[in-house]
Amino acid sequence: MGKVTGRCAHKPVDRMKHRTYLRAMTETDMTLDAIGLLCPLPVLKARKRLKALPDGAVLALLADDPAAIVDVPHFCAEAGHALLSCHEGAGHQVYLIRKGG
Predict the structure, then answer these.
(1) Is 86 one of the catalytic residues?
(2) Domains of the chain, start order
(3) Catalytically annotated residue among 8, 39, 76, 86
(4) Which one of 78, 85, 87, 96 has the largest count of C-beta atoms within 10 Å of its C-beta?
């Protein structure tokens, strides 16, 4: 058996499953920059962008409109999408939305 130095000795299949899991937790399929747009434009643009994505895809919506804090969760609930998270970026909010079917 070969010498292993500073690396995990996982099987390739395990690494692939781990990468897929990490990708789902940390990456998005598309980012929509709606910074500077006022209500209702961030939600309207998100709706249009989500239509082009497959079910289960994740859209990162960047917005600085104060109304987005209310509008985005309401839009997700009404349209059947999942709001995965909302957090502060550098002067804006970042909404992670998983497209529902």
Answers:
(1) no
(2) 28-98 (3.30.110.40)
(3) 39
(4) 96
